[in-house]
């Protein structure tokens, strides 16, 4: 008697499971927008139509003489939505909990830069409480290469995400000219998952960032708490768009007509409030994407009537330390900095530990 009951019960359970599974599948298909609005920890689902090449781009003056990258920019600049391959919807503790994140580190990192991500996780980008405030980290990526290599790199990011829960990846080509797209996809993600995060550090994976100094600096804005404008970094004034099609920074008049860019912060690393991030995202809807990501952020700010602010501790072009026998990697030069340009992984590791040294004083260079 007993085994019989068991079999019947199991059969009923299995049938019930199948029905439930089937329902949730059809629910997914039929009501994407509803699922999306549920938010929380359900992964973001969106139906995507492949973004088509804009053939009218070929009518742009001199189009045929442009190099392939510049042609691609014009063909695909209207494409703003790409499916996510790796998502972390609960990164900030859900949209509502996201105000507990004081500083979100948003680091642009192509898949191939594995060693840089590893060293950042152990140094300035470590997730931790700093001066009583939470620091969280995401690396933002697209896809690279083709064929087997593309698969391998996607697998690498998958493995890293499983271990560290810090990778966001979208299905677009991770190229220099697509950095603006990457930035906007991140802001779209932020609006959905971390809208109340107080501040963000946005930067490259090869800079040295003193995240503890950043927390102290940001805590100085007593009445801000991320709800007011802040955009600070190394400000570039009156830069003119490069009109040489062979340059990586080429911007045809078709994309940007004025002779100078509005002021903007160099993209190596800058700080902004959650409020300003959302203002930029809102403004971006009405401004065609420009392939220079930092200049584009400046255009969005200008459109909102806001300006970036210069911070002396942000040195995307290095410290310019002068003099004979001076070690340019002397930690006391770095102690007061927020962001310094390109540093090798090994130097990054050493520097991060040396600036933690409580005895570190300028001038005490023989340690
Ligand atoms: C396609 O390209 C042409 C020429 O650059 C441009 O005027 C038009 O707005 C583009 N269309 C879309 C959908 O972006
Ligand atoms: C940007 O990404 C899209 C989607 O992968 C791709 O079609 C396009 O060629 C890329 N643009 C550039 C300039 O690399
Ligand atoms: C951005 O736009 C959304 C939707 O229009 C609006 O609710 C929100 O207040 C705007 N945010 C900012 C910071 O302007």
From TrEMBL:
<dbReference type="GO" id="GO:0016266">
    <property type="term" value="P:protein O-linked glycosylation via N-acetyl-galactosamine"/>
</dbReference>
<comment type="similarity">
    <text>Belongs to the glycosyltransferase 31 family.</text>
</comment>
<keyword id="KW-0732">Signal</keyword>
<dbReference type="InterPro" id="IPR002659">
    <property type="entry name" value="Glyco_trans_31"/>
</dbReference>
<keyword id="KW-0808">Transferase</keyword>
<keyword id="KW-0325">Glycoprotein</keyword>
<dbReference type="Pfam" id="PF01762">
    <property type="entry name" value="Galactosyl_T"/>
</dbReference>
<keyword id="KW-0812">Transmembrane</keyword>
<dbReference type="GO" id="GO:0008499">
    <property type="term" value="F:N-acetyl-beta-D-glucosaminide beta-(1,3)-galactosyltransferase activity"/>
</dbReference>
<dbReference type="GO" id="GO:0030311">
    <property type="term" value="P:poly-N-acetyllactosamine biosynthetic process"/>
</dbReference>
<keyword id="KW-0735">Signal-anchor</keyword>
<protein>
    <recommendedName>
        <fullName>Hexosyltransferase</fullName>
        <ecNumber>2.4.1.-</ecNumber>
    </recommendedName>
</protein>
<keyword id="KW-0328">Glycosyltransferase</keyword>
<dbReference type="GO" id="GO:0000139">
    <property type="term" value="C:Golgi membrane"/>
</dbReference>
<comment type="pathway">
    <text>Protein modification.</text>
</comment>
<keyword id="KW-0472">Membrane</keyword>
<keyword id="KW-0333">Golgi apparatus</keyword>
<feature type="signal peptide">
    <location>
        <begin position="1"/>
        <end position="26"/>
    </location>
</feature>
<keyword id="KW-1133">Transmembrane helix</keyword>
């Amino acid at each position: 008697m007993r085994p019989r009951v068991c079999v019947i019960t199991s059969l009923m359970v299995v049938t019930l499971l199948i029905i439930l599974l089937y329902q949730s599948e059809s629910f997914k298909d039929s009501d994407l927008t509803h699922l999306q609005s549920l938010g929380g920890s359900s992964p973001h689902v969106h139906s995507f139509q492949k973004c088509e090449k804009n053939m009218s781009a070929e009518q742009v003056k001199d189009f045929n003489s442009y190099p392939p990258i510049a042609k691609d920019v014009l063909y695909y600049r209207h494409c703003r939505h790409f499916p996510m391959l790796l998502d972390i919807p609960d990164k900030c503790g859900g949209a509502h909990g996201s105000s507990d994140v004081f500083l979100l580190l948003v680091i642009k990192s192509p898949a191939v830069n594995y060693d840089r991500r590893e060293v950042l996780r152990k140094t300035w980008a470590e997730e931790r409480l700093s001066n009583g405030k939470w620091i969280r980290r995401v690396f933002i990526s697209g896809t690279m290469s083709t064929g087997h290599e593309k698969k391998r790199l996607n697998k690498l990011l998958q493995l890293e995400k499983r271990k560290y829960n810090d990778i966001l990846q979208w299905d677009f080509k991770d190229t220099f000219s697509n950095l603006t797209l990457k930035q906007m996809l991140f802001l779209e993600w932020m609006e959905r998952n971390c809208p109340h995060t107080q501040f963000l550090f946005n930067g490259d994976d090869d800079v040295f960032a003193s995240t503890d100094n950043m927390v102290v600096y940001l805590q100085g804005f007593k009445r801000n708490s991320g709800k007011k404008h802040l955009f600070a970094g190394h400000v570039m004034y009156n830069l003119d768009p490069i009109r040489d099609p062979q340059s990586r920074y080429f911007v045809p008049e078709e994309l940007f007509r004025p002779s100078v860019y509005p002021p903007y912060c160099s993209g190596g690393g800058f700080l902004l409030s959650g409020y300003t991030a959302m203002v930029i995202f809102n403004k971006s809807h009405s401004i065609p994407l420009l392939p220079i990501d930092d200049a584009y952020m400046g255009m969005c700010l200008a459109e909102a009537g806001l300006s970036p602010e210069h911070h002396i501790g942000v040195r995307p072009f290095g410290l310019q330390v002068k003099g004979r026998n001076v070690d340019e990697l002397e930690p006391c030069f770095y102690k007061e900095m927020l962001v310094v340009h390109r540093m090798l992984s090994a130097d990054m590791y050493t520097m991060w530990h040396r600036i933690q040294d409580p005895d570190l004083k300028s001038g005490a260079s023989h340690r």
